[in-house]
Amino acid sequence: MRTLPTLLLATSLLEVTAMHNRTDTAAPWRFITLDPGHFHAALVQKRMYPEVDPTVHVYAPTGEDLRLHLARIEGYNTRKADPTAWREVLHTDDDFLGAMLRERKGNVVMLAGNNRKKTEYIAKSIDAGFHVFADKPMAIDAEGYRKLEKAFRTARRKGLMLYDIMTERYEIATILQRELSMRPEAFGTLQKGSPDQPAITKESVHHFYKEVSGSPLQRPAWFYDVAQQGAGIVDVTTHLVDLVQWEAFPEQVIDYPRDIRLLTARQWNTAVSLPQFTASTSMKAFPEYLAPNVDANGVLQVASNGQIDYTIRGVHARVSVIWNYRAEPGGGDTHFSIMRGSRSDLVIRQGRETGFIPRLYIESKPDLDEAAMRKSFAELEKRYPGISLTANPKGWEVSIPASYHNGHEAHFAQVTEKYLGFLKSSSMPAWEVPNMLAKYRLTTTALAQSLK
Questions:
Q1: pTM of the entire structure?
Q2: Chain-wide mean pLDDT for the chain?
């Protein structure tokens, strides 16, 4: 991949263009990328959208975060297979946020970066009349949640679409787990569970050192600072809490005071050595702001792991996230999920035994009628051609064709298309906003409890 010389970032205006010609369109939606610091900002632009103008205005301070973002976009523009044609127009004013709000070069603000600043960016963008499409988490503490709640009220009053990027809803194994949980013949009814055996468990394992778009990912140093990135209990758990609501109570409004009761919350550290930090960030030393988290042995302690136990409408749920430094050779991120029903348990496993591909299992119970289950599954096959059942000692594996496993990076385009549909119709389902609020209130309340 060619990268842009850092010297160019000192200019106040820069265009990154594709290596081939294209004609401008009168697309109704014009993206503004604000202070991109996370690679998710680029993944939204890994493909083009007919309804989005190819010119994207980027407002950000100069520095490594911005250089890496532009290099990723240029990589998409110059790749051999299906190159994109984005034109990034760069604004690096000292007051880049103020300039964005004044100049109004677009109508949709895209956010994926330092989470300490994100809630403020959301609030000011909404106040100024922009739609906002934000990476998770949109709030990382109780104060941020209060600002976010106000931003949603303002968005509603102004008719603006404020939405977070929940890519995990587009993972095929999760989609089919949700579909099967809504089929009484296959699943029965969702059990209530207990604190020791929750009815719903979701566990996600991630890694600081990884590859994205075929290249080693360079993390910003602030990614290791929970004051800026957010503790693990408010970061990736956002996806897991979202999936609990989306799967167990599909298209239903969740009200936090009425429906959710937090039971326990805890967090713990991942140790990162200086050589590991250097390999991940290209920095030779820990920055000063990380000094309080470096132990006596010179090892950085990152509060990146967390677990929340709670009930939602009386159903016991557990979500947990674990961050290791690097996956074992041939490995990758993993996911485990179980929904316990009266007739079967629906289980997703993703690890070495599955080739690190999420696989879905129906683990039968005595009340399961196989003939009725198969008849219901046949109806599901019509919606997802090619899926099938393969018997095993505990029940069945749902065999899913490889074509459905399009990968995490592809999910950004899918959720972006969903959001563009909301913009086009000037509305989103009635349950989306209250459920986002319930989700962030739970994660930020859990953080406060874990610190006691």
A1: 0.92
A2: 93
